[in-house]
Amino acid sequence: xxxxxxTLLDLPWQTETEPNHxxxxxxxGGGGHGLATAYYLATRHGxxxxxxxxxxxxxSGNSGRNTTIIRSNYGIxxxxxxxxxxxxxxxxxxxxxxxxxxxxxxxxxxxxHSTGTARTEQTRVLMNNACGAPSDYxxxxxxxxxxxxxxLTGGGRYPVQGASYLHGGxxxxxxxxxxxxxxxxxxxxVHIFQNTAVNGLVKDGGRVTGVTTSKGSISAxxxxxxxxxxxSTVSKWADVRLPIRTHTLQAFVTNAYAHEFAPIVSSNxxxxxxxxxxxxxxxxxxxxxxxxxxxxxxSFAYLQSVSAKAVALFPFMAKLRILRSWAGICDISTxxxxxxxxxxxxxxxxxxxxxxxxxxxxxxxxSQLAKLIADDATPDLIKPFALSRFEREMAMADPSSAGxx
Length: 405
Ligand SMILES: Cc1cc2nc3c(=O)[nH]c(=O)nc-3n(C[C@H](O)[C@H](O)[C@H](O)COP(=O)(O)OP(=O)(O)OC[C@H]3O[C@@H](n4cnc5c(N)ncnc54)[C@H](O)[C@@H]3O)c2cc1C
Fold this sequence. Notes:
α1 (32-45) packs parallel to α6. The chain has helices spanning 32-45, 77-91, 93-97, 115-130, 140-146, 174-187, 231-237, 300-313, 362-375, and strands at 22-28, 50-53, 69-70, 104-105, 108-112, 135-138, 162-166, 170-171, 191-193, 198-204, 207-213, 216-225, 244-256, 264-267, 272-276, 281-286, 322-333, 339-342, 348-352. Strands 1, 2, 9, 10, 11, 12, 18 and 19 form an eight-stranded mixed sheet that branches. The chain has an eight-stranded mixed sheet with strand order 6-7-5-14-15-16-13-17. With 405 residues, the protein is of the alpha+beta class. The two termini are 37 Å apart. The structure holds flavin-adenine dinucleotide (FAD). Flavin-adenine dinucleotide binds next to α1, β13 and β17.
């Protein structure tokens, strides 16, 4: 395994080849969220009779497809507190798990190209500082010091007026994070089965009591769905209707750029973001495709529009070539906030609504959901993100979830 992880390797550390008949907790989905919840159940609460099932290989969903950005500069206080907790946990993840996840604090600039968005970014700074995410509003001259490659005129069309700057903005190697949690969970006694699709739920009265899989039925004390973009299918089996639609999100990388490109840069008006990978490649992303879809295809139109915006701010990119593009399918909630915890169906819990922003949330969500399952009570940090908020008309509309605008 090199630093960029061979994802198709078998899982070492596990001798069992078939799942047991019964577990205390069955987790559907071996992405970052499912695996982190299993890891914290075992390591913080001593609940090791846990099984994680993935239809494919671990990290094959969005957890191995994202652009690896970790930030906490969200738009509502509850979200800032939650994501700041996750950002801090990421800073300690290597020492906690003993695995090198290539965590790198880079800082994030969020550019404004108009008076209106400059005000938005100034407001973001005030709100972030008030809620515990250290940020500054920086001038064009300060921006140039952080990222000398910038054309402050924005190609003559998008002049840079200023930016909010989140000091703690970071990246980590996505599939290394998945493997760190998997390894830690396995070592603590959790079972993980790849290529094991869940194809239904077992119910007794109104309660979910297990799952049916391609390898037979498994009984469970509780079942947690952490299946990314496939959540509507799994929830339907539990008679839970969700305010979620699945959309495609694309990303791409260029060939390697020889110089250092230090920060993560997002543009509020241009609606795209860019950072440099550990390989030196420029990694770009933007908004999810508007049409709801389970399609993981990418499009020339997307590459063309994002490239044009990027070159306006960073002319050096015109000389790079696009190497690779890919997509994932994202569980977007109607208020752009996650949904964690209990449903109205006893025995069935959710970790969903992670949309285009859930990689950064993996440590906090996993640890909080593990606590919820262990204590059978929702921790304060994630209370606002309960599914029941929609019944109570307490939606958590967050304008800053996507990291673009
Ligand atoms: C292109 C792109 C860029 C992104 N960039 C960022 C970013 O920079 N920062 C950020 O914070 N977030 C980002 N995200 C979002 C982030 O990747 C996701 O929110 C996060 O990875 C979701 O993790 P998860 O564990 O919930 O789901 P996933 O990682 O999708 O895992 C779900 C797993 O469930 C399995 N599964 C599905 N159905 C079944 C079934 N029936 N039985 C068994 N297993 C099943 C799948 O095989 C999959 O492995 C991005 C997403 C994409 C697509």
